[in-house]
From TrEMBL:
Chain spans, region Disordered: 521-548
Biased composition (Pro residues): 538-548
Regions crossing the membrane: 489-511
Claim: Cell cycle is one of the keywords in the record: no
Keyword Repeat: yes
Matching Gene3D superfamilies: Immunoglobulins
Pfam families in UniProt: fn3, I-set
GO biological process, one term: anatomical structure morphogenesis
Sequence ranges assigned to domain Fibronectin type-III in this UniProt record: 1-93, 97-199
Protein name from the UniProt record: Down syndrome cell adhesion molecule-like protein Dscam2
This protein's UniProt keywords: Membrane, Repeat, Transmembrane, Transmembrane helix
Entries under InterPro entries matching the protein: FN3_dom (IPR003961), FN3_sf (IPR036116), Ig-like_dom (IPR007110), Ig-like_dom_sf (IPR036179), Ig-like_fold (IPR013783), Ig_I-set (IPR013098), Ig_sub (IPR003599), Ig_sub2 (IPR003598)
């Protein structure tokens, strides 16, 4: 493994170290490396390597193994701190030989081969190659490819393969090789067995060390063979084991559920038939749960929290962590715990509430880690520090809501409650502009309670202001009301629509009447063909020449009161200013007139005046011309 390091911090790359601020010239470095996935029963062993310079190669490491790499600097003043650990894995290599192999007789024509995985897999096992050869013949060994064996919780499952179709009474040899992506490893030991109809009891499983974590389950698999099929029993520390909780039989295996430290002991499987017996013993180790990881806050944002999950150092007697999880919930109000898969290093929690408190802890499959309190950035709305956001005159008050801050958590809902001079009220108002309260009493004191809220919480402040006296004049003319609510806006729209319909209806009626009036007939008098007069509904006879007793009431109305004229047949004009009539006479009906009609009436008046002059001419020596 080649290792190179730099002068770095957790967040940025630093420049080369300053010789004056770091205590002098760096003399050398110490490289510390520790295998992470070693046997949990073996104490942790740290290896150290003295290095000159900032780069080195580490040899004699285990293939496909994880290591923690840390570096410490030294100078004349002493030893510096260790750097944060860096985890790396070596490349794959061919595996070692399988650690054990068995071959037992099942009948006169079948055998069963079983073997254990390599002690050093040196990579991810892909398959096994099983070689079987008949010693009585000269042919080559038969090769069978077997997929890699799975692992159960806490122990390695041995691989097994039944060989059928063999010849009775023949002796067969068997051996096996394991393979990874890098190739096949060396062969296992060679074992031999003879097919027979009277096979003694044998156990294909392997004993040895079985390791489990407290609180988990452990399975001890005991697969037997022989003719006739053998019986099987279990012993604990040499004494018969009574099968009751937490011990259970699961097919060929003894299952120990909810492991505790007191379950650590020797367990033996015994198989017997008339032709022989066999036994296998397991030494069970119960490890304490994995040490939980640490958790620290790196950065808080309005809706995200960046945390660092720190793996705990390996402790002998504790199980190795297989997976890490991060648990978190809202602190107030108390929410449900949420679980998120994680790996050692930076972890981001997203989709959080702004300005809210959370609780979080890490776990490695065992007990929970230390719970920490964290909070997203932002907070409740911030109120104005004084009453400068309120301006008032004698009857109105203006509120500048833009002086309220959202606290970094988005939209704010603001509610105002006011009381004073015997009146009180409340209203939800928008934030970001000005709202006006009207109808106040001059020279009165009012109290306003403002409550602003957002998703981070709420803020409530109480303010007081006094309207100016009526005789003092207005400090500022304010005539705008509070913003209308949704209900008020709907009512206003309905009223406007109704008024619009009414106006359109009236306009239609007026247009129809105008067209009807425009269609009325006009009459032409003998005096001037172009003049039109209104003909009343009742008939009006032609007026005779004016009698001597004609008198004038006004310049706009004249009347003829002769003997031959009845009260109902009096002539009249369209523009009357005053009427002189006898008490027994009825007024003519009112009617509309036009400009043309007024012009004709003026001509008519002139004609009547000429007639009067002609009537009085004999006394003044005037001409007796008829006039028109």
């Amino acid at each position: 493994m080649r290792v190179k390091w730099f002068h770095v911090t957790a967040r940025f790359v630093a420049p080369p170290p300053c010789r004056t601020t770091e205590g002098g010239l760096i003399t050398h470095y110490t490289l510390q490396y520790t295998r992470r996935d070693a046997d949990p029963l073996v104490p942790v062993q740290d290896a150290h390597l003295r290095v000159q310079g900032e780069e080195t190669t580490v040899s004699r490491l285990t293939p496909y193994a994880e290591y923690d790499i840390r570096v410490r600097a030294h100078n004349a003043a002493g030893d510096g701190p260790l750097s944060p650990p860096q985890v790396c894995r070596t490349d794959e290599d061919v595996p070692s030989a399988p650690s054990g192999i068995k071959l037992i007789a099942l009948s006169e024509r079948s055998l069963r081969a079983s073997w254990l995985p390599p002690v050093e897999p040196n990579g991810r096992l892909t398959h096994y190659s099983l070689y079987v050869k008949d010693l009585s013949g000269s042919q080559e060994a038969n090769v069978t490819r077997v997929n890699s064996c799975t692992e159960s919780e806490g122990t390695t499952v041995e691989c097994m393969k039944t060989l059928r179709g063999l010849r009775s009474g023949r002796t067969y040899e068997a051996w096996v090789r394991a393979a990874t992506g890098a190739g096949e490893g060396p062969t296992s030991t060679v074992v031999a067995c003879q097919t027979t109809a009277l096979a003694p009891a044998r156990i294909s499983s392997f004993g040895g060390a079985a390791v489990g974590s407290a609180g988990s389950s452990l399975s001890l698999r005991c697969v037997v063979g022989g003719v006739p099929p053998p019986s099987k029993r279990w012993l604990r520390a040499g004494s018969p084991l009574h099968i009751r909780s937490p011990f259970h039989l699961d097919g060929d295996a003894l299952m120990i559920r909810s492991l505790e430290l007191l379950h650590a002991d020797n367990y033996t499987c015994v198989a017997e038939n008339p032709h022989g017996s066999d036994s296998v013993t397991w030494r069970v180790f119960v490890l304490r749960p994995p040490t939980p990881p640490g958790l620290a806050l790196i950065e808080a944002r309005s809706r995200e929290l960046e945390l660092e999950l720190r793996a705990a150092p390996r402790v002998p007697g504790h199980a190795l962590p297989k997976a890490y999880t991060l648990h978190w919930r809202l602190a107030a109000p108390e929410g449900e715990w949420r679980i998120q898969s994680a790996s050692p290093g930076p972890v981001i929690l997203s989709g959080l509430r702004c300005g809210s408190a959370y609780r979080a802890y890490g776990s490695a499959g065992g007990p929970p880690g230390t719970e920490i309190s964290i909070r997203t950035s932002g907070g409740p709305p911030v109120a104005p520090p004084d009453t400068r956001w309120i301006r008032s005159n004698a009857t109105h008050a203006r509120f500048d809501t833009s002086m309220w801050s959202d606290g970094g958590c988005g939209p704010v809902a603001l509610k105002l409650e006011w009381a004073g001079s015997g009146v009180a009220g409340a209203r939800d108002v928008p934030v970001g502009g000005e709202v006006i309260l009207g109808g106040l009493t001059p020279g009165s004191r009012y109290r306003v309670a403002a409550r602003a809220s957002n998703e981070a919480g709420w803020t409530r402040e109480v303010y007081e202001f006094t309207t100016s006296p009526a005789e003092g004049g207005y400090a500022e003319e304010v005539d705008a009301p509070f913003p209308a609510t949704a209900g008020e806006l709907a009512l206003l729209l309905a009223l406007c629509a109704a008024l619009s319909v009414a106006a359109l209806t009236i306009l239609a009626i007026l247009l129809r009447r105008k067209r009807t009036d425009g269609a009325m007939p006009r009459v032409t008098t003998s005096d001037k063909a172009a003049c039109g007069t209104y003909r009343p509904p009742h008939s009006t006879p032609k007026l005779p020449p004016d009698p001597p007793d004609v008198y004038e009431i006004s310049p706009y109305a004249t009347f003829a009161g002769g003997e031959g004229i009845g009260p109902g047949s009096r002539a009249y004009t369209l523009q009357l200013r005053a009427l002189a009539r006898h008490d027994d006479e009825a007024a003519p009906p009112a009617h509309q007139h036009s400009t043309d009609e007024e012009t004709c009436l003026d001509a008519y008046e002139a004609q009547r005046r000429r007639r009067r002059r002609r009537h009085y001419c004999p006394d003044h020596g005037c001409s007796q011309d008829s006039g028109s």
